[in-house]
Design a protein that fits this description.
This protein has 196 residues and is an alpha/beta fold. It has one domain: Rossmann fold, CATH 3.40.50. The protein contains six helices and seven strands. The chain has a seven-stranded mixed beta sheet with strand order 2-3-4-1-5-7-6, sandwiched between helices. Strand 2 and strand 3 form a beta hairpin. Helix 1 crosses helix 5 and helix 5 runs antiparallel to helix 6. The protein is globular, with a radius of gyration of 15 Å.
Length: 196
């Protein structure tokens, strides 16, 4: 049994106008996960975020959405992790990734942020890279100067279809991760063609 104790969805959860944008797919993933268990989120002021919980195979996991802009995610995560005395290695962060096409989702442990400012803030806050991540591909604009507008805009209809399909599929990989181990989850997710 894996020891993941909290799953965090990154996004600009401070303002509803960002819901459904490319930068919010991490939050969308965790919200989808909660719905699968018929769970809702409750805002907790002291954690600066929204919290829920699910149970996998008698293993309780906290779901958390920071109530902040994505680039300032570290403080909220640090607050809840410190309160529940959770080790960084027991955390799974779900976030968007411009290095993958929409519909590609990959696990990662440790390593650099890949230029993701939300991940950068978490690394800086905890002074460590030793946490699990699930990266959801959202594609990349051809012009880097358009990056901010790109991640804050909505995916196209085809992109959304691929992302939604991949999220559903990768939740199966998450079940494997929790029930068995990280390596088996990686093998399951990384060796399948999951673009619809």
């Amino acid at each position: 049994m894996n020891n993941i104790k909290i799953i965090v969805g990154l996004g600009n959860n401070i303002d509803k106008k960002f819901f459904g944008t490319r930068h919010n797919v991490g939050s969308d993933y965790v919200i989808n996960l909660a719905k699968k268990f018929n769970k809702k989120f409750k805002k907790i002021k002291k954690f600066h975020g929204y919290i829920s919980n699910i149970t996998f195979y008698n293993h309780k996991i906290i779901l958390f959405l920071p109530d902040s802009f994505i680039n300032n995610s570290g403080k909220s995560i640090f607050t809840i992790v410190n309160f529940y005395k959770i080790n960084l290695s027991n955390i799974l962060i779900i976030h968007d990734d411009i290095d993958f096409l929409p519909g590609i989702i990959r696990f990662k442990y440790g390593g650099s942020s890949g230029g993701h400012n939300g991940i950068n803030d978490i690394i800086k806050t905890f002074n460590s890279t030793l946490f699990y991540r699930l990266r959801i591909g959202v594609g990349h604009p051809k012009n880097k100067m358009l990056m901010n507008n790109f991640v804050l805009s909505y995916p196209t209809e085809i992109e959304k279809k691929n992302i939604d399909f991949a999220i559903k599929y990768s939740i199966k990989a998450l079940f494997i991760f929790v029930k068995k181990n990280y390596n088996q989850a990686v093998t399951f997710l990384h060796t399948k063609k999951i673009i619809g």
